[in-house]
Give the backbone structure.
Amino acid sequence: MKSEPADRMQALSRTLIFLGILLVASVLASIAASVVAATVFGEAFSMSPGQALPTEDSVWWQLHLQNFISQAVGFGGAAWVAGKIWSGAFPVGLPGKAAGRIPAVLLLAVLATVVCSPLLAASYEWNGTLIPEGGALEALFLPLEEMIEALTTYLAMADGGRRIIVILSVAALPAVFEELAFRGVLQPLLIRATGKAWLGIALTSIIFSAIHFQFYGFLPRVLLGALFGWLVYRSGSLIPGMLAHFVNNSLAAATLWVTGSMADDLMDLTPMLIGGSLLLTALATVACDRVIRRSTPA
């Protein structure tokens, strides 16, 4: 993919502007979430590394409300502003090309997401080896990682009808709003700015992972972001990426409900399992690509 220098410069400047918009929107979302929570529940709950998990039932509901506001205002709001200031050019791919709504494409997107789970679990272990034990990076990242993991587990732990709230909050909301911002705005800008689809997808995935501030899961989130990004780019629609994102987060919640843990060490990660996961993921994406090619007019 080739871009003229002027087009690349425009895309690069818009990329930097959008990252600024995303930062401002995230700050405003955090403030709004605290204000609304304090208004509804009398006090806004916040947590710092090392702090014990809450025991009050109302905090569970409050955190889900805060998550909704953070997702809608932070990511959804940033995508909406981008669409306004750039004359409706963003988000790209909603609903997008018809190829992104073909049942076989959607099914293969789900399949690729499911079968890559062992590969992601292995990458989580490899990621951990990159952060030296007892070093400054561990002292910086580990408390934050443990806090976010504990909060995520707390949010996802539920029984009965509450599980519907969990699926909406931890799976549906991120699948919609994060994909709008990252694959609907940032990725098209970075593809234009770099002139290379693979590089734009990779950079978007790195930023997508970094913004979650979970550096022990940085690599698997980059890989997931790359899968979502490829699905969106290849299909020309956000829908396959949103569906894959939703399935991944739903699987994490379901794993917690079944096993009592969201840990990535629940599988015996043999070389055969990892290799099989890589092969099946590749086959699913190749099959998806073939379906899209056949559905696209020459």
